[in-house]
Amino acid sequence: MEQIVIAFLCLAILLYFLLGGADFGAGIIELFTSTKNRSRTRKTMYHAIGPVWEANHMWLIIAIVILFVAFPRIYTTMSVHLHIPLAVMLIGIIARGTAFVFRHYDAVKDDMQWLYNRIFRYSSFLTALFLGIIAGSVLSGKVDPDATNFADAYIFSWFNWFSISVGLFTTALCGFLAAIYLIGECKTEEDQKRFIKKAKYMNFAAVVFGAMVFFSAAMEDVPLMNWVVYNKVGLMAVILASLSLVLLWYLLLKGRTQILRILAGFQVTMILVAISYAHFPNFIRLKGGGVISLYNTIGPEKTVQSLGWALVLGSFLILPFLGYLFYKFQQKEE
């Protein structure tokens, strides 16, 4: 049953990045859109994520519950040593959600719309940034359970070049996913061209920040190159991600947009596989060379079994309706 629980944890993290990350990316795209085009961008974005954006946070909740119930040491370590980026990320989620609702459904359209718009844009950027910073921190080897001062325990565990580079890389990937997803929602060729242009910019930014991740990893002794290049599965995942990217842009140039979302999601999935496969089952790298593994920190057997059955039975109840929700709201308006 522990394998089922771990599989659900990995799936929840992946789906939150692919779906929730694209929602954050919509705000990032709007942030880097000219003033004259922002209203059109918002209209397209509302049609794409308006009905389902709240459902995407289900995956984050599932991941947190799994860590809390089945892997208490991992949950505790992250909650203590990464509480600052976690708090910023959660505040960003709340702020962008609140602003998203008020700026769209507020009965009174007044000067507060100016504030709601800015909260949504900047909180989207910060949420994606700190999501990546948290991901980079668990891999950085900077988390120090034996720290004797505030800075080492709660600041430098995440405030380092590698974690920040991963945060910027994550932000660019979220923007890229959003741009690709939104291409299929455009009703005019002009809007499609605008989002294709945004996708190119975000793709270029992802390449630049990806190179920064490798450079900072070499500076701070994170064995990222060994995980990605000198591992057969990691190397194959990188090759598949590159090929899917080439195919994606080929189809865009040909004007075919039907499977772009699948290709973008596949590319990001392969990037995550490349980074995590060689590191698995280790979840957190500690300062001094220690690790916290999924296997040696798992909770009591009965607890894990109960959680596993709850996840399996819950998936049969929830996933069909979630799929139907996405299906209905992705149908084109008459």
Automatic annotation (TrEMBL):
Q: Which Gene Ontology terms describe the biological processes this protein takes part in?
A: aerobic electron transport chain
UniProt keywords (A-Z) are: Cell membrane, Membrane, Transmembrane, Transmembrane helix
**One function term, GO molecular function aspect:** electron transfer activity
Give the location in the cell.
Cell membrane
- What topology does it adopt in the membrane? Multi-pass membrane protein
| Gene Ontology CC terms | cytochrome complex; plasma membrane
Domain of life of the native organism: Bacteria
Which residue ranges traverse the bilayer? 6-32, 53-74, 80-102, 122-141, 161-183, 204-227, 233-252, 259-280, 307-327
Chain coiled-coil ranges? none
Tell me which family the UniProt entry assigns to this protein.
Belongs to the cytochrome ubiquinol oxidase subunit 2 family.
Protein name according to UniProt: Cytochrome bd-I ubiquinol oxidase subunit 2 apoprotein
Q: Which organism is it from?
A: Pedobacter xixiisoli
